[in-house]
């Protein structure tokens, strides 16, 4: 592969790449015996043929515009040890869908992921109180994004930050524009502050989401909080369960999206009443969801067994 390197202080910086056809790139860990510790400014700028890049464990820095305009780049996993991402490093990577951030990340520059409209799956390995490093991304986006926080104790918090839109409506009489916000996303983004992620505040906003966001999004928000109950209080848990219990099509949604664990959780919590159960069973049988039908039948036999008729002799 056509890499260009610069040697500084006994470390190698990847300064450029001149390939034109490779869709998958493997950056070497060493160059002429020196560890490759940085991807330099504009190193892969506008390489639209690249779909995926593998970085070595030796990388510590990704400098400004390093992968900007790589419009077909789809997935990026940053190795443990990366501490710095420069300004606009992944600018306009419009097909980037998922990225992992290591716990070593200290600084993320302005607009690092600006215009990455498909980036909806973010994983951050972090300590409690340090979750706000993803603010740089969330501040640059208004589309729905799922962020999974991975903590040292093995627990996770999987949160949906909903979409929102801003609009300006002219007020003729006042000779000014009124600023309107659609969707709850701006409120949810405010749950990330200088002291980290405020899970309690996130849970308190759920009633707004039920009135402002898509039904499937709200359903998934509730499912995620129940499956990954980081700092989930009993009152918040009850509100999520009550909401799911009020939606007759939740089991169908979970079957269609292959979320068996979530369906099992609802069964464990006895959320499915008899009418919802019968509807889900019929749907599963009609659509070949045999794995889920077995679960539902077991639940039905446990909680709604058939009652044998008694006859007077």
UniProtKB/TrEMBL annotation:
Gene3D superfamilies: Ribonuclease Inhibitor
Superkingdom of the organism of origin: Bacteria
Pfam families: LRR_5 (PF13306)
InterPro entries (alphabetical): LRR_5, LRR_dom_sf, Surface_bspA-like
Family annotation (SUPFAM superfamilies): L domain-like
PANTHER family: IG-LIKE DOMAIN-CONTAINING PROTEIN, SURFACE ANTIGEN
Protein name: Leucine-rich repeat domain-containing protein
Species whose genome carries this gene: Candidatus Onthocola gallistercoris
Lineage: Bacteria, Bacillati, Bacillota, Bacilli, Candidatus Onthocola
